[in-house]
């Protein structure tokens, strides 16, 4: 993609209404645009990153047998009355509205009451279980204070997976499978999330969250020595940094963190009021046991910016960066040299794309090196390659990774293979 | 995909509330579920077909330089007041609601007022034009009578592309490019759509629709002899079947049809009230000229069912069928033969998937051939392959295309290559 054709531009000005680092950087880099508090448009660069996160989530849900559906956002009142959520939490959380003839609708903020009647229509033998259904759609919340950029929106993207079982043991087995899938999702995204024990909220039982440590996090978690398990403050009241871990495995470190995913045992909270019962293989009628499992791709994207940026801009890992490579060609006053720069850059652009590397080529003429480098740092693609008179004097391209490391020169004849090897690392 | 794992099932019963052939067949085959009038859930098979249509649309939009974004569905009142649409059509078309503190929102039914201010922020030099932006998201309409299944929903998927130009000539040039891209989209989907001259509606100028002839269509069009151009009744009042074509090119045939796409010149209807002006390359300030271009993937899916079904079920073309092949393995009372049937089917399933062929394998045990064949006809995958005692006696698989043609036997050693060749046709 030629940057001269990208319709968005970066901005040096800090947006007046940015309420967080993620909002500020994503807006300045042209990834998103704020339409209202908690309501964002995803522009080409932001759209690409969001879609990559969604694709990783989708792939891992498919691996564990999830079947993808798309449920509506605009939903009639009726299904929400079964478990009482039309009134509790009701308008506190759900946008409610009237259509023609006074018909009442709500905008889905979750989907237990929508998916359960559908599964109930089809799953009527024990052989049909477990049933694993998910969707990746925008959800809506009537937030009292929409803030923190795309971390907490009134409209936000959400992957919600629901599982249906005939025994608690089967539910527990699948719960661990989802936890494993979530670990893979976050690893592929480059998000260092920690599996965290948490309160079950309105559902009673314990649940788990995936928490990403970052200074701007709203949650407080207590992490074990191995840094692979933590406890949310809400379940370990009075604990302090350095105290013994609740499981006796050593001491805990207090960290601020952002929740990027959660898994919940639902028990029969929704299946009981919806009268979803099936006879199990022993001939015993069981009220179906459910679990629900969420990851918010837009929230993950915001959390990544919070945790991975510096004073120059964002720092995207390979798998979710909008493009892998920022190819920057510089100006020369010598027309012959300029032509060489442009033809080398153009050829490299085409070669890399043919090899499956995604390239944003800053081909803009009349823009000085300083602003070009500042743009590359702000947008934060993982690898920057510079073609200039200086690098061509060495038959080379300048190589610089956004996450750190030294600049180096790579010979023109080697650059393509080296990029491909780097991408496959 | 093993059919025994697919959580949906077909139904022999006609749904009581189906208002059209597409609703009836899509519900019976388990592609969709109706939540309320005009509001449908897309279940795994329907979700796959809808995503395939969206992917084809996306690819062709990218070819003509479209840049994909995702704009919100939940939008504040303010942008909609600029061109007056908050009140006209207002609630007649737009779902409107209140959030906390009485803040007014509308659910986007289109996005001119959302996308124009964004493009205005970035495009301020003639070098930035044209700008071509699109999204594929769900839109919402407060329909007085939601009907015709997924053809006319309260919530529906819509690809909306917007173009921005500094001259009418450039706009007209792009208009033709979009028309060409739309022809490609419909050709790839297997939809025989006819380019149809239509009224510009509230935008004044003439516009074009893509109309798919089918008996259940709501529109009446007059098609030329070459069957590649038509006129919507609204612009040729009083014309009759067999009359001379408006362009003098012969006679016209009257047909019922469903609109599956449209392209509109917008002029300055939105850019003028939003004060979007840019100095062109001649130094003259121009109010930006816009075009808008729609395709509804869910509507296309519904139209395809209307036009392509028989009394047994749906008939999907290869490119948008949820799977390419319906592999059906039959029962045998002889356990040894049954094992052979299942191992041949299993191997073929795996081989085809490895070769990139999408297979739904009806592996259900205890289901008779009759219901299995009825299911295959109802779901309508383009190619049915049967493995049974009878076919294995001939070292063969039975080959039957859903769209017609004879049954034949294909030798086991040839079947994989023949399927791959058929898919590439």
Automatic annotation (TrEMBL), chains A, B:
Keywords: Aminoacyl-tRNA synthetase, ATP-binding, Ligase, Nucleotide-binding, Protein biosynthesis. InterPro entries: aa-tRNA-synt_IIb, aa-tRNA-synth_II, aa-tRNA-synth_II/BPL/LPL, Anticodon-bd, Anticodon-bd_dom_sf, Pro-tRNA-ligase_IIa, Pro-tRNA_synthetase, ProRS_anticodon_short. Gene3D superfamilies: Anticodon-binding domain (3.40.50.800), Bira Bifunctional Protein, Domain 2 (3.30.930.10). It catalyses: tRNA(Pro) + L-proline + ATP = L-prolyl-tRNA(Pro) + AMP + diphosphate. The keyword Oxidoreductase does not apply. Residues 38-317 form the Aminoacyl-transfer RNA synthetases class-II family profile domain. Pfam families: HGTP_anticodon (PF03129), tRNA-synt_2b (PF00587). Its EC number is 6.1.1.15. GO terms for cellular component: cytosol. PROSITE patterns: AA_TRNA_LIGASE_II. One of its GO terms (biological process) is prolyl-tRNA aminoacylation. GO terms for molecular function: ATP binding; proline-tRNA ligase activity. It is an enzyme of class 6 (ligase). This is Proline--tRNA ligase. It comes from Candidatus Uhrbacteria bacterium CG_4_9_14_3_um_filter_41_35. The lineage of its organism: Bacteria, Candidatus Uhriibacteriota.
